[in-house]
Amino acid sequence: MINFFLKKETYIKYIPFYITILFSFVSSTIIPPHGYAMTFAFIPLICILFWSLVLGRLFGTIQFLFIGIITDLLMGTPTGCYLLLFTIIRYISFKVRERFKLKFFYENILAATFLILAFYCLNNLFLFIYYSKIIISEHFMLNIILTIFLYPAFAVFFYWIYKTTSLEKYYVKT
After folding, report:
1. Residue 144 near residue 116 (C-beta atoms within 8 A)
2. What distance in Å separates the CA atoms of residue 67 and residue 44, rounded to the nearest whole number?
């Protein structure tokens, strides 16, 4: 059992999970300026979309479970809200990855843009069902635009981590 934890593969294989959790904690501790509560990009979504589009089904279901629950707790939403939304987006991103066979960086960014818009539509639908309110404001639109525009910068950083650690060789091809 101890040898399992001493293996380098154990830690490198879970780097996407660790990075997503780390960025979730960091992004939830940043206090927005007064009056601009919804103008920060949703960093956990950026992490999840990138790793889902790059790794595909290798980014595990249990990892999504923990990321969704932790994001719900950090953001103060009803437990299961982001778990459900992340699961739906994960499924859609797998279908997009399999259907379009994303090979280039700009294809990844284009697919992520549409997935970010789909996430926010689903999020607004969930808020409508749960709270019976539709949120459409310039702050909400700024949040969407900021998330879309920050995705390429994070994608470059995550792709660098992916290549530096050679993550693809630690996953078994199925």
Report:
1. yes
2. 8
**Tokens found for residue 51:** 């790793």
Over the stretch 24-57, which tens digit does the pLDDT of each residue have? 999 888 777 776 665 678 999 999 999 999 988 8
Nearest alpha-carbon partner for 81 in 117, 37, 7, 131? 131
Q: CB burial class (10 A; 0-12, 13-18, 19+) of residue 147?
A: buried
Cα(92)–Cα(85) distance, integer angstroms: 11
At 100, list the tokens.
Answer: 């379009």
DSSP 8-class letter at 136: -
Query: How far is residue 174's CA from residue 163's CA, in Å, rounded to a whole number?
Result: 20
How many other C-beta atoms are found inside a 10 Å radius of the C-beta of residue 105?
A: 12
- Among candidates 110, 45, 30, which has minimal Cα distance to 82? 45
DSSP per residue, 101-112? ---SHHHHHHHH
Q: Which two tokens stand for residue 107?
A: 């294809």
Distance in angstroms (rounded) separating the CA atoms of residues 57 and 41:
25
Predicted TM-score of the model (pTM): 0.87
Nearest to 24 by CA among 74, 79, 84: 74
